[in-house]
């Protein structure tokens, strides 16, 4: 059995996970956001019934491999805190931490839709976009703890004039991204960004859900917005596929509930990659909200395999 926690900006989900993916002793407590001792205390209390077992954590943040400090924009109390070392000191147990998008991709590779694939790039289309790259069943560690962040880098530049003279050239602005760069895919990709893109492209204020519904019923304005979205997202993800050699892309997050959007993005990606595939590359993820916990469990399975 493996102790796992999935730490987000709202809740800490906890479970004891079996190697086959079954979970028990599930708990969910609010994440203490501004109080580091309360945050540590919550984790210590959740694990207390299993004093000697390692703890594996999926977190909405990035652990610096050199300092152990977590960068998590939504959990301010973690600022400057080397969480795993702190927990190890408090509890005497081994603690291993990974980014939650990486854990989602890892879980899908072990238990979900990407089972059996060597190169897996998991994509989250949520409020923003995220990703995780899995090779041979393991998270690929990266510079500063970062891999799979395909949403950030200035990629949204005006397309060539011949591309879509009517709409695209003047319509896609260099929005400033939360990461500090302007023109990241993340500025047009997620649910809120899609709503902003729709407004910018001449649409009326709508939720991402109603924009997608209108698109599917053939609405011309929503069609223009989605043409722009698919063009940029398809290009960005095609680049990722060419670089990582991924043979499957599990897709999760709120926008993935629109099946037609995942299908259309798959088509846009496959039209832009260097190779051809007989079937879809993008597949809706299988594990839902449990992916973080199950991915954390995979970190534990990996440690066992190494010993
Ligand atoms: Zn960015």
TrEMBL record:
<keyword id="KW-0808">Transferase</keyword>
<keyword id="KW-0418">Kinase</keyword>
<dbReference type="GO" id="GO:0046872">
    <property type="term" value="F:metal ion binding"/>
</dbReference>
<dbReference type="GO" id="GO:0045127">
    <property type="term" value="F:N-acetylglucosamine kinase activity"/>
</dbReference>
<keyword id="KW-0067">ATP-binding</keyword>
<keyword id="KW-0547">Nucleotide-binding</keyword>
<keyword id="KW-0862">Zinc</keyword>
<protein>
    <recommendedName>
        <fullName>N-acetylglucosamine kinase</fullName>
        <ecNumber>2.7.1.59</ecNumber>
    </recommendedName>
</protein>
<dbReference type="Pfam" id="PF00480">
    <property type="entry name" value="ROK"/>
</dbReference>
<keyword id="KW-0479">Metal-binding</keyword>
<keyword id="KW-0119">Carbohydrate metabolism</keyword>
<dbReference type="GO" id="GO:0005524">
    <property type="term" value="F:ATP binding"/>
</dbReference>
<dbReference type="InterPro" id="IPR000600">
    <property type="entry name" value="ROK"/>
</dbReference>
<dbReference type="InterPro" id="IPR043129">
    <property type="entry name" value="ATPase_NBD"/>
</dbReference>
<dbReference type="InterPro" id="IPR049874">
    <property type="entry name" value="ROK_cs"/>
</dbReference>
């Amino acid at each position: 059995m493996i102790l796992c926690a999935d730490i987000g900006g709202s809740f800490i989900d906890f479970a004891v996970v079996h190697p086959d993916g079954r979970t028990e002793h599930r708990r969910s407590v609010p994440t203490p956001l501004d109080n580091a001792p309360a945050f540590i205390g919550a984790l210590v209390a959740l694990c207390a019934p299993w004093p000697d077992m390692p703890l594996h954590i999926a977190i909405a943040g990035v652990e610096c491999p050199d300092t152990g400090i977590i960068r998590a924009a939504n959990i301010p109390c973690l600022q400057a805190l080397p969480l795993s070392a702190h927990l190890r000191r408090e509890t005497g147990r081994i603690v291993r931490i990974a980014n939650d998008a990486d854990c989602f991709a890892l879980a899908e590779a072990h238990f979900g839709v990407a089972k059996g694939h060597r190169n897996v790039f998991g994509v989250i289309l949520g409020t923003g976009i995220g990703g995780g790259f899995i090779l041979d069943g393991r998270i690929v560690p990266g510079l500063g703890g970062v891999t799979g962040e395909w949403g950030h880098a200035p990629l949204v530049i005006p397309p060539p004039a011949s591309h879509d003279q009517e709409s695209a050239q003047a319509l896609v602005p260099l929005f400033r991204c939360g990461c500090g760069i302007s023109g990241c895919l993340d500025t047009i990709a997620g649910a809120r960004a899609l709503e902003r893109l729709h407004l910018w492209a001449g649409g009326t204020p709508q939720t991402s859900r109603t924009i997608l519904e209108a698109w599917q019923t053939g609405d011309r304005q929503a069609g223009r917005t989605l043409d722009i979205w698919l063009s940029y997202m398809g290009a960005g993800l095609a680049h990722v596929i060419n670089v990582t050699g991924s043979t499957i892309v599990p897709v999760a997050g709120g926008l993935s509930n629109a099946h037609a959007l995942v299908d259309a993005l798959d088509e846009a990606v496959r039209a832009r990659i260097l190779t051809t595939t007989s079937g879809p590359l993008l597949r809706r993820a299988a594990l839902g909200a449990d992916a973080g916990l199950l991915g954390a469990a995979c970190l534990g399975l990996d440690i066992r395999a190494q010993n």
